[in-house]
Every structure is written in structure tokens, then in C-alpha cells.
Amino acid sequence: MAEPGGGRPVTVSDVQQLVRRKDEIEAQIKAYYELLEGQKGVGMHEPLVDAEGFPRADIDVYQVRTARHNIICLQNDHKALMKQVEEALHKLHAREKEKHAKDEAEALAEAMSQNQSLPQAFAKVNAVTPGSPASVSGLQVDDEIVEFGSVNANNFQNLQNIATVVQHSEGRPLSVTVIRGGRRVHVGLTPKRWAGKGLLG
């Protein structure tokens, strides 16, 4: 049987086909051995002549010779086929390994590109009063705000949106996401009354 595929990569069905062929050959070998068994149990090496050197009359010499010849041929085919099965399996595993490595590389590349596509900011912090709730939470000047509680670039209309969220969240921590130095940073901010103006500062 020819090498499966020639130029194309080995597939699982190629291997299954080789294994089916191997099973067929094994079944044929078994059938010939049974035939020899039926001829007074002559195996592959018992003499086919009697003590005087004449062909044995108790067996079908021609049939035994043919069976022995076929067994030898089939065993050679079987050996060659087993080598093909082994090679095909090696190729298949090598391809699986290659595919796995490629998938991992693609996943990594995707993760990297996701890191680069940062969400859109809708406001920028231009001042933080020292000692204010904003300052205590770690908010910094030049932080670009991408999420402020429930407000994000998709639903932000004006600063009044933020003022509303702040008033409703007095004394309760708000989740704020900013872009700082090209990276996402999460800040926990609790609007509350303090010595200065407003609830944030």
C-alpha cells in the first residue's frame, strides 16, 4: 500500500485505513494457519515428504505449499504495514504537537493585542486636592477615566452624569477604572464629606 497522502499531511482516517488493512492481513494469516492445522497439523516447517522421499499422501502438498508461501508473503506485508502505521502515527502526533504550539502562540498573540486595545476614556483628571477622598483613593492627575461606577464612554454625556453617581454613592465605595501610563488601573473611591468642597475633591 502506498504511503498515505504522498504530499498531504497524514490524517486519522489514513491511520485507521492502515490499521484496517493490518487487521485484514492478520485474519488472512490466521486462516492459512488454520488450513495448515487442518492438514494433519503440518505447520510451517514439517516435512512434506515421507521416509522414502515421496510426497506425503495423507496431506494436500500443493495446498500446504501455497498456504506456507502466502503466510510468508503476508507476514512481510504485515511487517511493512506495521512500519507504515508507526510512521503515520509519528507524523500525526508531530502535527498535533505543532498545532498545539500554534494554538498557544495564537492565544498569546490575541491576549497581547487585547492588552494593547485599551477601552476608551471619557474624562481626564486635571486636579486632585490633597487630603480629599479622590486623593486618599489614589486617583492621580492625568488619569484617564474609562469607568466611573456605572458611567462609561458609551453612556457618558457630561460631567453631570458623574455628579449624579457621586451624590447617590455618598459613603459607599465606587469602582473606578482609569488608564495610567498605558495600563488599566482600578481605584476604589468612596465619595464623602470632607473639609474641602464637594464629595470627591
Automatic annotation (TrEMBL):
> In Gene Ontology terms, what is a biological process of this protein?
proteasome regulatory particle assembly
- InterPro entries from the xrefs? Nas2_N, PDZ, PDZ_6, PDZ_sf, PSMD9
Q: Which residues form a coiled coil?
A: none
Q: Name one GO cellular component term.
A: nucleus
Q: Which residues form the PDZ domain?
A: 90-182
Q: What keywords is this UniProt entry annotated with?
A: Chaperone
Key word Hydrolase present: no
Q: Which family does it belong to?
A: Belongs to the proteasome subunit p27 family.
Subunit structure, briefly? Interacts with PSMC3. Part of a transient complex (modulator) containing PSMD9, PSMC6 and PSMC3 formed during the assembly of the 26S proteasome.
Query: What is this protein for, i.e. what is its function?
Result: Acts as a chaperone during the assembly of the 26S proteasome, specifically of the base subcomplex of the PA700/19S regulatory complex (RC). During the base subcomplex assembly is part of an intermediate PSMD9:PSMC6:PSMC3 module, also known as modulator trimer complex; PSMD9 is released during the further base assembly process.
By what name is this protein known?
26S proteasome non-ATPase regulatory subunit 9
Protein source organism: Acrocephalus arundinaceus (Great reed-warbler)
Classification from the root reads: Eukaryota, Metazoa, Chordata, Craniata, Vertebrata
